User: Fold this.
Amino acid sequence: MGKKENPDDLQAYVNLLVEHQDRLRAYIYTLIPGSQHVNDVVQNTNAVLWQKRKQFEHGTNFLAWAFNIA
Assistant:
């Protein structure tokens, strides 16, 4: 059976994801300025960040990690 995620770690990850949404959106906008697809790319990036959440090392720079994935 798979290892369960620690609810505290999961909540901490959700908090990081929510806290950095504006900066993530701004960064993605710099990659595709003027594009009508910024919201779609942000949504897709959030989906990938969620799928890879177990790869994030708590205590490291979340935003740098997220930008690398974006």
